[in-house]
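Dissemination and training. As part of the outreach component of the grant, students in the summer workshop were shown how a complex can be specified as a set of sequence lines and then modelled as a single object. The example used during the hands-on session is reproduced here so that future cohorts can follow it. Participants entered these lines:
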Amino acid sequence: MNNNYCIIMAGGIGSRFWPLSKDNYPKQFLDILGTGKSFIRSTYERFSPVIPDENFLVVTNKAYKHLVLEHLPMLRDDQVLCEPARRNTAPCIAYAAYHIQSRCKDANIVVTPADHLVTNETEFQRIIRLGFDFLALNPQALMTIGIKPSRPETGYGYIQCGSDALRHCEQSEAIHDNVVKVEMFKEKPDYETAVKFVSEGNYLWNSGIFLWTLDGIMQAFKQYLPEMVEVFEKGIYNFGTPEEQDFINDHFVDCPNISIDYGVMEKSPNTFTIPADFGWSDIGTWGSLFTHAKKDDGGNALRGKVVSVDNTNTIINIEEGTEAVVEGLDDYLVAYRDHSLLVCRLHDEQQIKVWIEGLK
Amino acid sequence: MNNNYCIIMAGGIGSRFWPLSKDNYPKQFLDILGTGKSFIRSTYERFSPVIPDENFLVVTNKAYKHLVLEHLPMLRDDQVLCEPARRNTAPCIAYAAYHIQSRCKDANIVVTPADHLVTNETEFQRIIRLGFDFLALNPQALMTIGIKPSRPETGYGYIQCGSDALRHCEQSEAIHDNVVKVEMFKEKPDYETAVKFVSEGNYLWNSGIFLWTLDGIMQAFKQYLPEMVEVFEKGIYNFGTPEEQDFINDHFVDCPNISIDYGVMEKSPNTFTIPADFGWSDIGTWGSLFTHAKKDDGGNALRGKVVSVDNTNTIINIEEGTEAVVEGLDDYLVAYRDHSLLVCRLHDEQQIKVWIEGLK
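and obtained this result:
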């Protein structure tokens, strides 16, 4: 037993992976990569060596509570916090922080999305432990894991560090030398800017994995999001009691719709990052899935009972219990799940959201 | 009530339309064209003004008997004859002919496949009546409906007529002038030969729809297929009795595997054809289905709840209860039914049979 808590944010609906992900079965519950485990299950297992089972909290929509408990049966019912509405990451994290506060005033917290990929879990755990060690010395620090960029990705936000900081940290094993002060957070760049970031060498991808102490994040909320704090303070005596859910149901919607990055991280002078390299991807697009999937000789990523004839660079992903013959496609995406079929050019995938509107 | 009988041959398995047609649900039971009726149902309705309900016989595999009765609920159980094995068209027709013989010695018979398309049913019925009228005058004639060819199709057999015969028959309404002596039956030609046939003007497509009297076809069977007749004659007293099915189950397999064209029509000097033009197709390929289907502005034939984006000349056919988004295909075929998906180039459809072997 320790005071390390993990908040898994699992409220996403993930329409980008339609038809695999849908409102009634979003991406975090899928095993898109064929690892044998859903994203949320992998997320739990990745943190499990660092966080005791009873210190996990999953924040999700109440529609997904049963799915969370199905994928993570080691959690108690009250470890799944249900948002009555979507209000972006700041209120999501605040909800969980107020809940933790009712149980443990001196908690350390790591916050993570439920639907990312990490290929080197040992290195991942080393980084998380390093983050907690840093917090023990710097309890007011607001930390985010920074990923060393391998390409000029335009789908991620970037973290700008001091020019020499990254070079320095590779030469030392001391905790302080492995943690770098954030100079500035940068929104998703266009391609040219991304190329510039990567070539300059002092930029990292913003993974959306955060570490802080309970006290540190609470102080920051009070300073930068007072109108949100006002909402939660009204129910301060309800958290951790049977009245918590009723209070949330009644008042959560009053929170501003704002991300933790925009609402807190970009405003605080107290932000740090740990440069890391543990095989990370947010698998936010079919393209990134394709990058990480195993391919056949034609460069095709196949899932399910598929006869693939004369295809190249094509994703074919069909659910169990179905079968497919697919022939003559180059750079396409073929996906079938839950009575819905998608066939499209891989590079047009950003249009999926628009197209599926036509089915409604 | 009259003595006109109709034999519907409905034993095909139709793997060319996979995944729409499968062993457990072959083409004759499908509504591939979206007319609201299955092929077998349309076949029945097309003959219904000419043939009394009680004079229809459907020959099929026993596995499909329940499907036949489902699609044609006006038939009695004993109007569905069950082949225990597939032995091509000659034994199929002989089985039905022996059955008819037990009920009506002076029957006229029209034989039809269960899975063809006819668009002008009124003209079709005129032609069938004309055939029966000709039989009344020429009871030994073996007739087949010949279709005036509209293109050099290589997928059909051809009927060669006398050079002047066809021209003559268009100028007269007399029965005899509308029926033409067959000079020779021609197997499916290669493309060059087909072009020659069409340009010469005295060739018709062989529709596989036959008319004859019971006596006429029985005489022909005795003359040209004595080894088959020997099989059926053993059970001559069983036809039309409760023992018929047992006899067939025990002896039908002993019949030679031979088509009516090869076994009888090509050998008899007594063959006639009625040149006809009633919008006929055997819908034997996805390509022919495409020809007859309604198209959208992009030339796509769509069936089901489909959002089609930037496709051209593409068939998209998905079963009820499913939905699809399909984008960026030209000259493709996308079909989903019964847990099976096919995506392939339309002009490669002849390979479907080979590909689906890979799923087994």
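The two ends of chain A are 49 Å apart (CA to CA). Students were then asked to discuss how this feature might be tested experimentally.
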